Amino acid sequence: MQLSVVIVNYNVRYFLEQTLLSVRHASVGIDLEVWVVDNNSVDDSVQMVREKFPEVKVIANKHNPGFSIANNQAIRESKGKYVLLLNPDTVVEEDTFSKCIAFMNAHPDAGGLGVKMIDGGGNFLPESKRGFPSPWVAFCKTFGLSKIFPQSPKFNRYHLGYLDKDENHEVDVLSGAFMMMRKETLDKVGLLDETFFMYGEDIDLSYRIVKGGYKNYYFSDTTIIHYKGESTKKGSLNYVRVFYQAMIIFAKKHFTGEGAFLFIAMLQFAIYFRAFITLAGNFWRAASLPIIEGLVMAGGLHFIKDFWAENYYSDADYYDDSFYYVNVPLYISLWIAGIFFSGGYDEKYNFRRVVRGLLVGTLVLAAVYGFLPLEYRPSRAIIVMGATFALISSVLIRTFSHFLQYKNLRVGHSLTTNLIIVGSTAESERVQHLLAKAQVQKNYIGTVAPSETEDRQTYLSGFSQLEEAVRIYKANEIIFCSKDVSAQNITKSMTALGPAVDYKILPEESLSIIGSSSKNTSGELYTINIQFNIARKMFRRNKRLFDLLTTFVLLITLPINIIFVQSKIGYLRNLFYVLIGKKTWVGYAKTQNTNSNLPKIKSAVLSPLDGITISQPDEPTVQRLNFLYAKDYGTTKDLEIIMKGFRRFGQ
Question: What would the pLDDT profile of 617-634 be if each residue is shown by its tens digit?
Fold first, then answer.
């Protein structure tokens, strides 16, 4: 047997399906076996593989043992001359396997082989070729010198930026996303080190391959798509911690003496430094707009106060300095809090949310005004003028931000996506049907034929004129139908057109359209991925706030309301659990399906079943009610269920 392909999967069913379809196409004429090791996914990945890919050998783990252990499980059972470790979020070209095998056969000194990888936006992934880490390499990567000097042999040893990505090279490190090795090499140097849970295991194995007397090669004659980001987002603290801890494990294993101490110290410092950078970046992305708006509001209140004092009271010193350290912070806090809880910072170009938030904030301020001591009650006209200024300034700030980002002033209007489909008329119609079924609005321009054509009534152009069609019709999204367009042509088109266009792929006989425009974000399921309200940040935040407010009201009225609850002890326990965030008042009803794909929320006291009169609904009804609750969630829905099921608060 020539090749054993090993794929470790964890909750990426639809990407896995696309990967296996591309593997099936690439396996024509090759004696190979395919292994899928599933690390206890809850998205029915195993069932999908067994139903759609009966030729694939499946190992279904009952827990998640990590990447290294899972790969080793299949490698030990494999029979191929070569072993390929392949990520489940990749697409290989039809001749990828045959080309790689031919290269390995022609280079008996090759222990491992990696290929050119692009992300879902057509960008070259620099981790396709890497150098071994060292204290200096780690320093350059940690402090960004490798990004500042991407083609420098001195500063960018980590990604070997000075090596031409379109030529074959001997390299140090292969990427675990596509790592082809001789089985005899693995027998000599050993399998993946199971100390590594995620990240670092490919560096460690690449290092041992070189130490074993073999060479690692970067092979540029074939290209694969690697969507990336499916396990750990690079913008998260978890990524920083896991990645650098893996580097520490590598350093402790392979370095000794003063060099090891320096390397480990550098990596430990890098963990805190990168964590600080990540936290600072995340904070600025989340807080920059409210900070800017708050400062502008403060400036506006200063001028309004001076204007009103001089023109209404004819006294420039009419207001006490307490206005600045009591009234200004109070007003701004309530206005910004109103925008925040209205979702105005989640959807910053939704002016309706901004207006609603400022209105709520002003109403709360008006209610608070009467409770303030007399010395802290300036004219109510300042509140009205301040709220008006806050609205105008917020709109202007967001309009300017929109212009900087999109180069137009059409704020609040959904950006028109000009869509071109590449494929046959039958597959193009299937794409349009799936988009309509998922209620995805696109400005469909037309279809480009998968080959050359003279039928300009049916098609915009032939495939060779795709770039011209994109330019003429100003298309900013392309959906490739993989039944009609080869993976090789897809990767070539993505590379040629670049990241200015969003790309999606419709796998043959699949109900999902898949794509991801960035190497740093998770891939997205484009059609059958229902938009659940309960999964949105604003709704989750409002649900928690609703729980706290409800608990606060219940505690105040406890001597009265406890009389009406059936289980008194259970009620008191639930009050405590909701208060500390261990439970929520309303959530999903319990079902027999433990592998539900609904967004996760806390266990609940009440459920949609408490809002209906059916005593014992069947399982499909319960699942449907849970689905609708997650999809259409709003705090009014929770309130309605609570009003009907209050007596069962102790269950």
Answer: 777 788 888 888 888 888
